[in-house]
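Quick one, tokens below:
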């Protein structure tokens, strides 16, 4: 599965070449292989997975996820479920509870998969909030399948949006749309009387780069909260890398090839069409049907394709692309469980630390202003609590990460100070934490990018989740589809709709688009895409005229 770059140039051929063996690229490769295509996946790193990798980076016997850790979206994703990865070794594990939020005074609120337990925890903050939460959970049960299909499917989601409309009816569908656009703080004020429920929604919104006062932050805060209530925050047994391992095993069983340590340096374009790729050693893999790239759009189009093959307006749009927040992450190997003061945190796989709603507002304001937050909000993962195989018996493998401004460089002194602040917050809520540290690994934004080049500047979601860069605006104003301005080249990564998280949707959407382009009505499909691109990027240029004559 691993092969160094060729020292001498050669030419290979496949129906499809997939650039990048992140989970989205592997999903795309699997779906194409299911249709009988020969598929070659080329990966720059020495192992597949991208941000779904697991290694011993702290101490022997302690497994640490290098990027993604908890996977509610993947657990319910129609894409991943349809691949039957359980047949290839993927197993899911759960902590006793998915989530707790610890306030500055050490009061904790618990989100349990048992709605009665969640409701009781919320009622301790404000009587009646438990019933309000139950109403949301009941509504979610009716909406989950059509809503997830609409969110994760190709854009525009006409059929699945219609299912949502039928489920709710017109007036309530409008109310749902309004809710999705609300800032998380406003939604909490409208629905709940107490701080407990409000910080659960707001804290989950901060799993993205959306501040809790920003438009549409409720969409993610509500979605993740309801998923946690419904299916929890499950983790793969043995680490997130098991998702990639299962995808690779499935692909290889269907004749696909994954070659690691083979970085692609160029997408080859002839007559306005992507025809293959060239690797760092000069070898070429020709693509008979399509090239799919699990690579951030700015890197793919500007660096691997080249601006000479792109419309001028698209080049300008790429210059305006906005990354999400940078991430600072710490992994620890502990000699025992975290000594939390708040009992709720002792049973939660994920713990939110960072104060009350006002503190979360201040945190977002610091990021918006380009300041290092004085009081960092943290996601804290207790991995052995979720999956006992992550560390030796009686010990704990944990991590924490916080957001930093992506808008500027961070000095070593600033990063060191932020690590100190993070550690102090944990020690305040878990006195004696430092005494249990066996080993520690700090991953700065540059370190995250070094281990996965798609995490540009430590941006986990490959682009902001703010509304101006979602849906039809992702990754640039256009069609909201994986098709690019180069015929036969498809975006298969998280810079395409529907953005980040481990659910495989961008890869699946890219595979569907490639199959449509190569299918019986491929010329009609391509003509429609060209018409859309002319509408977005302006009058036809020479490249469009060449394509029109194919």
């Amino acid at each position: 599965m691993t092969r160094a770059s060729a020292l001498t140039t050669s030419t290979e051929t496949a129906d499809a070449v997939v650039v990048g063996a992140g989970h989205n690229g592997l999903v795309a490769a699997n779906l194409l292989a299911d249709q009988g295509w020969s598929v070659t996946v080329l990966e720059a790193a020495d192992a597949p997975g991208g941000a779904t990798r697991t290694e011993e980076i702290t101490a022997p016997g302690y497994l640490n996820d290098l990027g993604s850790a908890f996977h509610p979206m993947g657990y319910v994703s129609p894409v991943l479920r349809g691949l039957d990865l359980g047949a290839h070794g993927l197993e899911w594990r759960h902590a006793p509870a998915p989530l707790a939020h610890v306030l500055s005074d050490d009061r904790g609120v618990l989100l349990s998969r048992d709605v009665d337990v969640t409701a009781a925890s919320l009622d301790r903050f404000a009587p009646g909030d438990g019933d309000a939460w139950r109403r949301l959970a009941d509504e979610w049960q009716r909406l989950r399948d059509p809503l997830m299909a609409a969110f994760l499917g190709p854009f525009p989601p006409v059929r699945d949006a219609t299912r949502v409309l039928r489920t709710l009816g017109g007036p309530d569908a409008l109310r749902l749309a309004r809710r999705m656009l609300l800032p998380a703080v406003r939604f909490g004020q409208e629905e709940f009387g107490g701080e407990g429920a409000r910080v659960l929604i707001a804290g989950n919104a901060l799993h993205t780069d959306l501040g809790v006062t920003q438009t549409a932050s409720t969409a993610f805060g509500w979605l993740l909260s309801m998923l946690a209530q419904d299916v929890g925050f499950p983790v793969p047994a043995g680490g997130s890398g098991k998702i990639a391992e299962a995808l690779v095993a499935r692909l290889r069983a269907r004749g696909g090839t994954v070659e690691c340590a083979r970085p692609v340096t160029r997408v080859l374009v002839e007559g306005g069409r992507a025809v293959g790729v060239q690797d760092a050693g000069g070898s070429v893999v020709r693509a008979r049907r399509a090239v799919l790239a699990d690579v951030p759009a700015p890197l793919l189009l500007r660096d691997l394709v080249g601006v000479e093959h792109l419309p001028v307006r698209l080049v300008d749009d790429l210059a305006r692309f906005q990354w999400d927040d940078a991430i600072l992450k710490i992994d620890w190997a502990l000699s025992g469980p975290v000594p939390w003061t708040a009992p709720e945190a002792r049973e939660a796989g994920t713990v939110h630390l960072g104060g009350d709603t006002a503190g979360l507002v201040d945190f977002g304001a610091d990021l918006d202003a380009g300041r290092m937050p004085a009081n960092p909000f943290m996601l804290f993962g207790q991995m052995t609590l979720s999956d006992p195989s992550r560390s030796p018996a009686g010990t704990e493998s944990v991590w924490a990460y916080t957001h930093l401004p992506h808008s500027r460089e961070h000095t070593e002194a600033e990063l060191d100070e932020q690590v100190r602040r993070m550690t102090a917050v944990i020690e305040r809520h878990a006195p004696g934490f430092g005494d249990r540290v066996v080993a520690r690994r700090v991953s700065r934004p540059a370190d995250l990018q070094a281990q996965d080049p798609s995490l540009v500047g430590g941006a986990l979601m490959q682009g902001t989740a703010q509304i101006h860069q979602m849906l039809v605006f992702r990754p640039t104003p256009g069609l909201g589809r994986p098709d690019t301005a180069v015929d036969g080249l498809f975006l298969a990564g998280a810079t395409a709709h529907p953005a980040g998280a481990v659910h495989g949707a961008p890869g699946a959407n890219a595979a569907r688009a490639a199959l449509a382009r190569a299918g019986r009505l491929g010329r009609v499909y391509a003509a429609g895409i060209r018409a859309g691109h002319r509408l977005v990027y302006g009058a036809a240029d020479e490249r469009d005229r060449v394509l029109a004559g194919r």
